[in-house]
Amino acid sequence: MNKNECNLIINKVKSLYPNIKLNETILAIWIKELQRADYELTDKKLEAYYRDNRYAPHLKDFIAIKEFNYAQLQYQEIQRDIEYNKKHSDPVKRQKVRAMFNQLKESLEND
After folding, report:
1. Integer Cα distance of 99 and 95 in angstroms
2. How far apart are CA 88 and CA 76, in angstroms?
3. Could you report the per-residue pLDDT of 18-45, keeping only the tens digit for each?
4. How far apart are CA 74 and CA 107, in angstroms?
């Protein structure tokens, strides 16, 4: 999330909960943490919190950090390489990619 999106979230919190006390220290921490978060997911989670709670939230109540599965991203990249190699027919590279693919597939299945 960029700083503009962080400010949108903070302003939304201030609008929804006008009595919330956010000093400079708290705002600095919120901005730092919100920059690691996903804007759309955080916004939806904040709205859901507002529907269910009348008390001002803590950051942990609505922040949503998107986690990445790097093994899954690598798996998808290998799949793209396999498709590319099928079209361009490079047997040596295809064999290397297939070996990496099988190794990663076994790793994902064991998790």
Report:
1. 6
2. 19
3. 999 999 999 999 999 999 999 999 999 9
4. 12
